[in-house]
């Protein structure tokens, strides 16, 4: 590991094979945690490459728990996090809306590490038990077309890495690989990063990992979501072609808002925001979700263009289908909570 640390400190990129070896060392429980910390910090300072990200994601997936998932067109819309925007859990709400529109979602997420409320934190605040065994999570996916996979459950080797990441307290390559390590085989994906200089490279990674169709977004101001503030940078991955484009809220009939309009808070506060919008309250939170869900539906191929996706996402909410999805997942995992809170 010291050799790789020295190489990275010299600003030398690791090859795919070198990063695979470094990744295996990182995930070896006998490796000193201080060395792991030094390596991750050095890599962040140098700047990660597509080869490095893809290699780490490949090794992490090779160590994940094996899931017996029926063949299907599954997608994820997990972002990298770490954008510092303090927005509420847009991708988690969008996942529910996308599922309400009929697309099978396997949402991969974690607790807060560099944000105030991770996807797992807000799901628990909504009443969803995230400590379900793997088979129960897959049963929900088969029955309802949506499930939430808690990263430490499906990636037991990452427990020590989580401690290192908390010590660092800033985004690392593990933020970048988080959306790429879903153990459910994904044909499509919508994901956000907070680095406008890395959108093409990240799109390359998605292609390297076998996504048939995907969209990477870097929102205005470096959000890892499509932002209502202004012009967003995106890359469409379609059967190996990488197609950059930009998108503003007005392009899909939505209004501009300031970043403060979608600011979140604690897990409990974000859960209430989510319940309000799923019950049809139309404001900046609502628009942010249908904007991102609409792009996700287009990434999946469920619609022919993003305006159609936004329209379908809005219908998913106003028809009650999205809220019904949430209720179904809560009822499966935590029946008493469902009767008390979501009735």
TrEMBL record:
Coiled-coil ranges (or none): none
Domain Glycosyl transferase family 3 N-terminal: 2-63
Record Gene3D superfamilies: Nucleoside phosphorylase/phosphoribosyltransferase catalytic domain, Transferase, Pyrimidine Nucleoside Phosphorylase, Chain C
Amino acids binding anthranilate 1: 79, 110
Pathway given in the UniProt record: Amino-acid biosynthesis; L-tryptophan biosynthesis; L-tryptophan from chorismate: step 2/5
Sites where the protein binds Mg(2+) 2: 224-225
InterPro entries from the UniProt entry: Anthranilate_Pribosyl_Tfrase, Glycosyl_Trfase_fam3, Glycosyl_Trfase_fam3_N_dom, Glycosyl_Trfase_fam3_N_dom_sf, Nuc_phospho_transferase
Keyword Magnesium assigned: yes
Domain Glycosyl transferase family stretches: 72-323
Cofactor or coenzyme needed: Mg(2+)
GO molecular function: anthranilate phosphoribosyltransferase activity
Binding positions for Mg(2+) 1 per the UniProt entry: 91, 225
Pfam families documented for this protein: Glycos_trans_3N, Glycos_transf_3
Residues that, per the record, bind anthranilate 2: 165
EC number: 2.4.2.18
SUPFAM superfamilies: Nucleoside phosphorylase/phosphoribosyltransferase catalytic domain, Nucleoside phosphorylase/phosphoribosyltransferase N-terminal domain
Chain residues that bind 5-phospho-alpha-D-ribose 1-diphosphate: 79, 82-83, 87, 89-92, 107-115, 119
Superkingdom to which the source organism belongs: Bacteria
Cofactor details (free text): Binds 2 magnesium ions per monomer.
Keyword terms: Amino-acid biosynthesis, Aromatic amino acid biosynthesis, Glycosyltransferase, Magnesium, Metal-binding, Transferase, Tryptophan biosynthesis
Function per UniProt: Catalyzes the transfer of the phosphoribosyl group of 5-phosphorylribose-1-pyrophosphate (PRPP) to anthranilate to yield N-(5'-phosphoribosyl)-anthranilate (PRA).
Recorded family membership: Belongs to the anthranilate phosphoribosyltransferase family.
Subunit structure: Homodimer.
NCBIfam families reported for this sequence: trpD
Protein name: Anthranilate phosphoribosyltransferase
Species whose genome carries this gene: Psychrobacillus faecigallinarum
Encoding gene (name): trpD
């Amino acid at each position: 590991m010291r050799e790789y640390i020295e190489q990275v400190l010299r600003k030398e990129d690791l090859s795919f094979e070198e990063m695979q070896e470094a990744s295996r060392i990182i995930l070896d429980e006998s490796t000193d945690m201080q060395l792991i910390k030094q390596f991750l910090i050095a890599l962040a300072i140098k700047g990660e490459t597509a080869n490095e990200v893809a290699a780490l994601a490949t090794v992490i997936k090779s160590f994940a728990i094996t899931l017996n998932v029926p063949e299907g067109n599954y997608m994820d819309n997990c972002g990298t996090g770490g954008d510092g925007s303090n927005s509420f859990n847009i991708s988690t709400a969008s996942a529910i809306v996308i599922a309400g529109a009929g697309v099978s979602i396997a949402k991969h997420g974690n607790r807060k590490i560099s944000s105030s409320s991770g996807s797992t934190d807000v799901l628990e605040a909504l009443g969803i038990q995230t400590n379900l065994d793997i088979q129960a999570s897959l049963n929900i996916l088969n029955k309802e077309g949506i499930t939430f996979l808690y990263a430490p459950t499906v990636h037991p080797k990452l427990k020590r890495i989580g401690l290192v990441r908390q010590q660092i307290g800033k985004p690392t390559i593990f933020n970048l690989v988080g959306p790429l390590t879903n153990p459910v085989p994904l044909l499509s994906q919508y994901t956000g990063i907070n680095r406008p200089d890395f959108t093409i490279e990240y799109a390359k990674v998605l292609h390297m990992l076998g996504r048939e169709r995907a969209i990477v977004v870097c929102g205005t101001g470096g959000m890892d979501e499509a932002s209502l503030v202004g012009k967003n940078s995106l890359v469409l991955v379609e059967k190996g072609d990488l197609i950059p484009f930009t998108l503003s809220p007005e392009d899909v009939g939505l209004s501009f808002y300031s970043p403060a309009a979608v600011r979140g808070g604690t897990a409990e506060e974000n859960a209430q925001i989510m319940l309000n919008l799923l019950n049809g309250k139309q404001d900046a939170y609502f628009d942010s979700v249908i904007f991102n869900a609409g792009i996700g539906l287009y990434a999946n191929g469920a619609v022919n263009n993003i305006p159609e996706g936004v329209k379908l996402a809005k219908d998913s909410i106003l028809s009650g289908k999205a809220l019904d999805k949430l209720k179904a997942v809560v009822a499966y995992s935590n029946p008493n909570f469902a009767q008390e809170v979501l009735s």
